[in-house]
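pinging the channel bc i need a second pair of eyes. not urgent but kinda urgent?? the chain im working w is below, pasted from the shared doc
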Amino acid sequence: MIRIDSDQDLNTLLTLPNEADIAFARRLRGDTVILGAGGKMGPTLAQRLLLALRSAGRKSRVIAVSRFQSSDAERELADTGVETVACDLLDPDSLKALPGVENVLFLAGRKFGSAGDPEVTWAMNTVVPAQVARHFRNSRIVAFSTGNVYPFTSPERGGSVETDALAPLGEYAQSCLGRERIFEFYSKKFKTPCLIFRLNYAVDLRYGVLVDIARQVYDGKPVDISVPAVNVLWQGDANSYAMRSLELCESPARILNVTGPETVQVRRAAEFFARRFQRGLLEKGESQGLALLNNAGVCHAALGFPSISADELMEAVATWVESGGASLNKATKFQVMDGKF
């Protein structure tokens, strides 16, 4: 059972490479650029990759690229040895100044606010990928995507698989499919090895679906059960999968679902937190029996099972919330069923 008592402990666990990461780092050739590295996942991914490389005795560079609206994130990365470059990926001239590298992890994108400014969402999720795919045509690219491109499905079905027909609901999900198609197009055009990384609900103790549910219960707020089930994955495992996916890149682009093996029932999670916090449970909404769920069996066969189970993750979240741990105050909106974010 994991126990995390401070931001420092959390960062250490998120960034500590495992044996598979270090073995991968020994094989990795060339430098790596992480685009969109200033977001929720980018900083710990960059640090974990750098630590894996150094543990493997490699001197390759890890370059974190972002607008870096928070100077704290840029300073934190620089202090750990990750190189940082401030760049607006929508600006072609700024993008052209980025160094050519062998490996690219593409994390840039826009979700929240999509309903209010859809044109910005489409620009970030399709124009930027086109510019990036052209600039890094000679690299390997892991492009982050989402399970939102799939249709809602019954939890009993076990989640969507990579070969299922797509049915993105709403402009955010549609633009994410647009991002995928752009990378697929240029992967074929330039023979660029690429992997579409369809990640569903990574959980850092400061944010994530389980954090949303736990904080609602702890604060005495109702939990929305309109979406009855979710997939979750410890962000440390998501970091590990992301970097090691560079070895799975292909042309034409490969698709990979990335999440944990469990299907977590929202009501069950809420009941767990209610017992843990000794709180009454309030619910709202009515389940339609449908959810956005991924089957990540292919990922687990290729990269191994997550190091932390959903039950362990719920316990860690409960301890964090109960002890007054920090929050990023960024709700996942997992309960949204109309595609409007």
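so The domain at 7-203+233-261+292-306 is CATH 3.40.50.720 (Rossmann fold). and The CA atoms of residues 271 and 331 lie 20 Å apart. — does that match what u expected or am i reading it wrong
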